[in-house]
Specification:
This protein is an alpha/beta fold. The protein has six helices and 17 strands.
């Protein structure tokens, strides 16, 4: 058997990168089975019940052992290492869940226009990343179409908070060198709504991917989803690294990842968290709130605080809150995305 890294998965087929090249694999049936045994002192007791898992217990980014069967094909016999972090995209219509394991960075992609950038959605992404202590790159694509003054001003706010901001154009090549440097040595997930140019950007970064490129509907200014699976794209260069490209998204699930610490996930709030008069302060309407006072004095950005309020009102600080409606001012619909630790 040979060891390798799962770099692509779609509809039960997995592409595994090994020292001998890419092997297209299926998953051994026993890995989908879950056995239940009766409580017994007998070491030779029989299986009481067997369940077949609804979804493959495998994520893109996992390390596996493969039994080659014929030229370029094989069977995954063992999952050696499953990462403690993964992003999971759920397809509610098909019941599929596609995961990317081993992530240490997310790249949140927005376009300067077509579709217009919605920074409240960016704040939701940042909360998920902060909750899991993942690095984040804010990528603004289509800069060849121009960057409005209001957007440039808002990006300066995020730069001052310590977030990396890359201004790119897949068409002109602007900013691609800077973005490659930010990706080197990381397993990075590209996230963003349809039409922002994720697949086009991947093609520009790594020629030869043969990705189908979406076009913007002139009537709705909404992109059509073109990526149907999940893949890790190996990056060239000495530093290496991988890019995870996932299908377009429609809603952002915070789940329980920020439970009880939503304010902490806004990194600029942290110096003020122990200065509130009330120990149970939720930083919304309580008297003596240090965060509200800092906003009033201009020490904290008001729009970021309004994002916090919106998330809090939607239940982002509560355990067990599942899905948030990421609805923009133009009522754009987005796909379902969840961040799942330990998958």
């Amino acid at each position: 058997m040979v060891e390798g890294l799962v770099i692509e998965g779609n509809r039960g087929q997995y592409h595994v990168e090994t020292a001998d090249g890419i092997i297209i694999c299926t998953l051994r049936g026993k890995l989908r089975k879950q056995f239940e045994y009766p409580v017994s002192q007998n070491w030779h007791h029989n299986v009481q019940r067997m369940k077949i898992k609804a979804r493959d217990p495998l994520s893109v980014g996992d390390h596996v052992r493969v039994l080659p069967t014929n030229a370029g094909n094989g069977v995954i016999e063992e999952i050696i290492k499953s990462s403690s972090h993964s992003f999971t995209r759920e397809d509610s219509k098909k019941g599929n869940v596609r995961s990317v394991a081993g992530l240490d960075q997310v790249v949140v992609v927005f376009a300067t226009r077509d579709p217009a950038p919605h920074l409240r959605l960016l704040d939701r992404f940042l909360v998920v990343a902060e909750a899991q202590e993942l690095a984040t790159v804010i990528c603004i694509n289509k800069v060849d179409l121009g960057v409005d003054d209001w957007l440039a001003a808002r990006l300066d706010v995020y730069r001052k908070l310590g977030y990396a901001v890359a201004l790119t154009s897949a068409d002109s090549g602007a900013g691609l060198g800077e973005l490659r440097g930010l990706l080197a040595g990381h397993i990075s997930a590209f996230l963003g709504s349809s039409g922002v140019g994720k697949s086009t950007l991947l093609n520009a970064l790594q020629p030869g991917l043969s990705e189908r490129v979406s076009e913007i509907s002139a009537s709705t200014h909404k992109g059509r989803h073109t990526t149907t699976g999940t893949r890790l794209v190996p990056l060239g260069g000495a530093a290496g690294g991988y890019i995870a490209d996932t299908a377009g998204i429609r809603a952002l699930a915070l789940g329980g990842v920020a439970a009880g610490r939503l304010a902490w996930c806004f990194r600029e709030f942290r110096p003020y968290l122990d200065q509130c008069s009330l120990g149970y302060c939720h930083h919304t309407s309580e008297p003596g709130c240090a965060i509200r006072a800092a906003v009033a004095l201009g020490r904290l950005d008001r729009e970021r605080y309004e994002s916090y309020q919106r998330l809090y009102q939607d239940g982002g600080d509560a355990v067990g809150k599942s899905w948030f409606d990421a609805v923009s001012s133009e009522d754009h619909r987005l796909d379902k995305l969840a961040y799942t630790p330990g998958v």
